[in-house]
Write a structure and sequence with these properties.
Elements lengths: L43 H8 L10 H6 L1 E5 L9 H13 L4 E7 L2 E2 L4 E2 L2 E6 L2 H11 L3 E3 L2 E2 L1 E4 L2 H6 L31 E6 L2 E8 L4 E9 L6 E3 L6 E4 L3 E6 L4 E7 L5 E4 L5 E8 L8 E8 L5 E8 L18 E2 L5 H7 L16 E7 L2 E7 L3 E2 L5 E2 L5 E4 L5 E6 L9 E7 L4 E8 L2 E8 L5 E9 L6 E9 L7 E4 L8 E6 L5 E6 L6 E6 L11 E6 L6 E4 L5 E6 L6 E6 L4 E7 L5 E4 L5 E6 L8 E6 L4 E6 L3 E6 L9 H9 L1 H46 L1 H11 L2 H8 L19
Antiparallel strand pairs: 1-5, 1-8, 2-5, 3-4, 6-7, 9-10, 9-45, 10-11, 12-13, 13-14, 14-15, 16-17, 17-18, 18-19, 20-21, 21-22, 22-23, 22-24, 25-26, 26-27, 27-28, 29-30, 30-31, 31-32, 33-34, 34-35, 35-36, 37-38, 38-39, 39-40, 41-42, 42-43, 43-44
Amino acid sequence: AEMVQLEIPLSFPRGPNGYVEWDKIDIDSIDLPPSEDNYGIPSDDEDLTQKDGANKDGSKDESSMMSTAIIVDNLPEVPEAKFVKLTNVLTKIFGQIGQIRDGGLHMPMDPATKMSCGYAFIEFSSRAEADAAVEQTDGYKLDKAHVFKVSKFDDFEKYAKIPDEYVAPEPKPYTQRENTQAWMMDERGRDQFVCRFGDETEIFWNDAQKSTAVEEYKRSFWTESYVQWSPRGTYLATVHRQGVALWGGSSFGRLAKFSHSGVQFIEFSPCERYLCSGSAHEPSRGNPASVVVNFFDIATGQKLRQFSGAQKDFLASANQRGFVWPIFKWNGLESEDVYTSSSSKNDIKTEENEKEMPAFFARLAKDAVQVYQAPEMTLLDKKSVKLPGVSEFCWSPGEPILATFQPEQNSGNVPARISLMQLPSRNEVRSKNLFNVSDVKMYWQSQGDYFAVKVDHHTKSKKSTYSGFELFRLREPMCPMEVLALPDKAEKIVAFAWEPKGHRFAIIHGDGARPDVSFYSMIEAEGGAKKVHLLKTLKSKTANHLFWSPNGSMIVFAGLKTMNGQFEFFNVDEMETMATCEHFMATDVEWDPTGRFVTTAVTGVHQMENGYHIWTFNGRLLYKQTRERFFQFLWRPRGKSLLSKAQEADIKKNLKKYSKKFEEEDEKIKNQQATMLDKAKQETKEKWEAWVEEKKRKIESDEYQGTLKKILGAEYEKQGAEIVTIEEEEEEIISVVEEPL
């Protein structure tokens, strides 16, 4: 805009310094000349007016009002006495999403019945807030009989244009969907893994026979934060600011997307039927820090339920610091799994196993655990599980059994309590009272056969602590339990881990830089009593983490972080070390789903030597890759085996017969590699010989000799007598094979 200079009237009062004393001027008494020009300076009042959807003359713009307003239908019809209460409830729900205008919530009332009409109009300060309100609250369950149906006000214009006469849409041609389990059909039984580094996300086959990773799919800027496999490997989830996308099939095309603005966390249900997404939001516009959790049906994409509220409402106790994910925890099994689990294990039989089980998920609340069931997404039996002071809980990976811990209360007069509860009957399987407890950690065996609680006790003076274990046998009548104490109770427990699909567990214990590792079994020798007993203690190990193979028997002792990546591969069946190795500064360890290979990785936590190493189960390095800004390495999980236990036992019994085919395939690949290597060597040799022959021809040519004679002159005649040909042989070791004596 063109700048205009205005003269200050001489009548304005001025101070001794010659400047105008503006505080002595009555602004309202000044007559300004009429002008449409704002001199390029926007008025604050005008900006607010325009933002609020008003015209320059101050009147409301009808189209803007419609874009910032929503209609909430299916509200309870309440009498005039409850009108204010319902209005306050709506204000609390929608006020967390955006700023409601003054007088922007209108709930019509029927003058004849003096009852509300069952719907309300809500106007927000911006269109974005109105859009977010529709996205986050459509389908919100106020109670069992009232589920919100939320629409934009300007959608009614669109609906009004729908013709009265129905015209059937043309059917879309059928398109075959990709097989999302195709990767499980790999003829060589290879596994996939995903790597994320920089802005790249890559999916590879682990080709052990060729000792390399074979690229399957690659994509730049695939995710804005991280990726995550579903529990059975069907989907790869990518997380974005707008929501979550699921990818799969041979081409890794997008199979589904779920809208959740600002999503930060995701969690799949064990059977991949449901997806839970969560986000934490900082305080804004006078509203406190809030949390939003959505549950979706993966097959249909439908949002089943939303939980939202102030962050303090999602904390189990006043002592809890900050927002902890997951807020909701899924139980280990769902419906069809109950048959395979319960039919073969008759130790905990109830009438619940006779019928199909829903999926359960639960969250901590004040003095209670709230258990919900899917797909209804309602509170089980319409009430919480009351447990005064409860601070922790976890689900069994087997039957729907809930393990909970209640700390001591009333200055120690009420003991701490561990309890195991069967759902949905709420029958208590077993409980144990404890005294002088300072902390607990709970561990389930992978099949739910055993349950362990590490209990840290304090002395009466509270000046020192000592640890022990409470062990429960879930597959035996009355769920018997035992107490395990280490020989030195004061020793620090560094790590604990159950053997998957087995009866053993390992403990790292000790206070020094090289602690001990002990193995225990829950089963005595054949014919003996079922009693926990020590198998062996290994002294002075460089380890602070334990990683069992998914199939048991093998374990990796890992010295991560302060121990700089020291590893020991140990065979628990034979109680012998198979290999020791090092991956300097390693931060992560992960077994592949078959228990054949192990990955050690250095992620972006460190700036140096980022990348991963692939090892065999017995500690032999297959190959390694370095990557700048390396963030994630995740093996792709495998789905459930379709074989029965009898079939699996038959395969193990006749393993030599079945493995012959794969041994032949491995030998074929090795021969191909050897052939390719020989071919490459032969090609290199032929290129070298051709180059030498070409040089000889050039040197022996008359043109070359004539040029050389001109350069050397008289010396040319002498050089022939001085040339001596020397032949040397060089040996190269191709391989070394040790023959047994």
